[in-house]
Amino acid sequence: MSLTPEEVKAVAHLARLALDAQRIPEYSRDLSRILDLVEQMQAVDTDGIEPMAHPLDMAQRLRPDEVSEGDQRECFQAIAPAVEDGVYLVPRVIE
Fold it and tell me: How far is residue 40's CA from residue 50's CA, in Å, rounded to a whole number?
């Protein structure tokens, strides 16, 4: 797939990117090469191939799911400007 310089300008405008006008042909060529590579990868037959989360067949070591810090709600709410029924009260910002 080949992108024209006008298409690159349009995409840059939609993405709100400022491009140097002198480099637009270079961007057009590079983006076209990327899209060509994507087309090549889409043409590969992947039927029967199981998706991988990681290229190495390893298991992630996980730590036990245990509480590592005690409940400090009372301590934090003691210094809050306004608290009611265990929740912080804040000024209304939307009418």
Answer: 20
Do residues 36 and 1 make contact, with C-beta atoms less than 8 angstroms apart?
yes
Domain extent, residue 38, equals 5-42
Per-residue pLDDT, averaged over 39-54, amounts to 88
Q: How many domains does the chain have?
A: 1
- Specify if 75 maps to a domain: no
Q: Does 10 map to a domain?
A: yes
Whether residue 4 contacts residue 28, with contact meaning beta carbons closer than 8 Å, is answered with: yes
CA angle, 82 then 86 then 87, to 5°: 55
**Within a domain: residue 84?**
no
Q: Residues 66-90: pLDDT tens digits? A: 998 999 999 999 999 999 999 999 9
